Amino acid sequence: MVETVPSEADRTWAAAAHLTILLDIISAPIFGLIGCIVVYVLSRDRGPFARDQAREALNFQLTLALVLAALVAAMLVQLFNSAFGMMRMNASIVIYVALMICAVLAAMVSGVIAALRAKAGRPFSYRVAIRFLR
What we know:
This protein is mainly α. It has helices at about 10-20, 30-45, 50-80, 90-120. α1 packs antiparallel against α2, α2 packs antiparallel against α3 and α3 (about 50-80) packs antiparallel against α4 (about 90-120).
């Protein structure tokens, strides 16, 4: 079996797909997800490496968005269950916010590692991504 080396353009598109997660610094998972969708659509017709890595990055972005949405929902339920506790700070709210920050930071570190591997021409697979796109 002969392995083909991805072209420089394919590796750049693949790295760009993974680096869109850094846009989450600006806005939770919104800009990162939109950026990843744009890169996925633009790189679909390129080589198989760019397409595969863009799909992998998009699956990870969608998983992160789902995790953050679940944490926000749980936090809101906790807020309203504490007798409409808008006036007092609940310790569990701090825990939810800390979990959200940890999830985003871990995702960004994973995205940078994935981009470096993709730029080197080695495929990267996120371990905790739900495969929405196959």
